[in-house]
């Protein structure tokens, strides 16, 4: 006989896991949580909007609305493929105005519309988000809760990798986050973007982004803005 647990991950997954002994009918099953039905589904939708990091205008960006040309075709294919798979690590590099940010935003919108938790942040905003939790006057998630969201969210889109105020604390947090996402790239998706090339980053971070299981795509062409 199986026992249903209260859903502790419904904000990200939308399922309740049902433990059972091997060779029994319920073994390994995950059933939809109540958050997928009626009022709770709307609550889930609102929750995903509160964490996606996008402005109302950015939420209109979709893959099908993007201008795809030879200079960004590979990047488009890699990002859309990774979003469909729901795992991996894809880094977009190149000069400003080549469409990197739009691809990240479209990926977050696509995931959220499929009820998958997704977050978009610049690295600078990400660090500010963590720091804010240390302020006793700041309401909301604790430091641990914010860190857990960033490390465990199913789709994380990180923009402007090299544009943040470098301090020992900031460098360590950035490194720790990249390392955590890299270690779990077989079951979570991280999409990253930066102007220029990977040589601007710490060598240990470069090594993870260049992992043979990961993808690095350089966008060329003209400024599309």
Outline the structure in words.
The chain is of the alpha/beta class. The chain is built from seven helices and seven strands. The strands form two sheets. A five-stranded parallel β-sheet has the order 4-5-6-3-7. Strands 1-2 form a two-stranded antiparallel sheet. It is globular. The longest helix has 16 residues, at 168-183. 37% of the residues lie in helices and 15% in strands. α2 (73-85) runs parallel beside α3 (100-113) and α6 packs parallel to α7.
Rg, rounded, reads 19 Å
Secondary-structure-based class equals alpha/beta
The H/E string reads EEHHEHEHHEHEHE
Strand order of the largest sheet: 4-5-6-3-7
Ends distance: 59 Å
pLDDT under 50 segments (min length 5)? 1-13
What portion of residues belong to β-strands? 5-15%
Put the structure in a nutshell:
This protein has 225 residues and is α/β, with parallel strands linked by helices.
